[in-house]
Specification:
- The chain has about 230 residues and is α+β, with helices and mostly antiparallel strands.
- The protein has a domain of about 120 residues: Mannose-Binding Protein A, subunit A (Mannose-Binding Protein A, Chain A, Roll).
- About 40% of the residues lie in helices and about 20% in strands.
- The protein contains 5 helices and 8 strands.
- The longest helix has about 35 residues.
Length: about 230
């Protein structure tokens, strides 16, 4: 019996001595659950501290920006900013002016008025009505500049062009369409020997380099005139 027990002890010792340990191959012992939980708790604490530090830094940054914004600007900088804004407004106004149409299509702008030069021909009375139909008036000339502007744009010869001047009401007394009398300073625009009232010529027209009196039933071109539209900023 004693021999059998001794043999069993010897076999157990041999078995234990032959048993291979995991550490012999470089394997480490896996931490138990308590150690792993401790690591998680330490990681959470570090994350909380990091978030708190970030919030504190952000708060300080906002406080600094508020203080800087409250510092009054030097007067020179304010003046420079005002000039910049003024220049931008000026450019905007210029852009709007280019978009604004002072006159209808095919009309020409000159010194606050719009002018329409016809391409068809009518007698003087029909020309008056044609201008009225477009809320205008057969042209009344008020200045030397306007006379030059018109004279450069109407034909020198046929077809001639009607203007809003006649002596229909009183022979020899020339009146414009607005009932104003012809100024003596405008007499220089009559061609030589005109007006001569030859053959009941009661209506004025452009002919050559000046004016001529002609029969009102003659078919001529005509010029309409009306005030231009106002644009923003005028």
């Amino acid at each position: 019996m004693a021999q059998q027990l001794g043999s069993l002890e010897e076999e157990e010792q041999i078995t234990n001595s032959n048993r291979i340990s995991p550490q012999a191959f470089g394997f480490q012992r896996t931490p138990d659950s308590k150690t792993f939980t401790g690591c998680l708790e330490r990681g959470q604490v570090s994350l909380v501290l990091l978030l708190f530090s970030f919030k504190l830094f952000a708060g300080l940054l906002v406080a600094i920006l508020v203080q800087v914004s409250n510092i009054p600007r030097p007067q020179g900088l304010e003046h420079s900013k005002q000039e910049e804004i003024y220049q931008e407004l000026t450019q905007l106004k210029s852009g709007l002016a280019r978009l604004c149409h002072r006159c209808p299509w095919e009309w020409i702008f000159f010194q606050g008025n719009c002018y329409f030069f016809s391409s068809s021909q009518k007698n003087w009375h029909q020309s008056v009505i044609a201008c009225q139909d477009v809320e205008a008036q057969l042209v009344v000339i008020k200045s030397a500049e306007e006379q030059t502007f018109l004279q450069l744009r109407v034909p020198k010869d046929d077809p001639r062009t009607w203007i809003g001047l006649s002596d229909l009401k009183h022979e020899g007394k020339w009146h414009w369409m607005d009932n104003s009398t012809l100024s003596s300073s405008f007499s220089k625009y009559w061609n030589d020997g005109e007006p001569n009232s030859h053959g009941d010529e009661d209506c004025a027209e452009f002919k050559g380099d000046g004016w001529n009196d002609s029969g009102c039933d003659r078919s001529n071109l005509w010029v309409c005139k009306r005030p231009s539209a106002s644009c923003s900023g005028d």
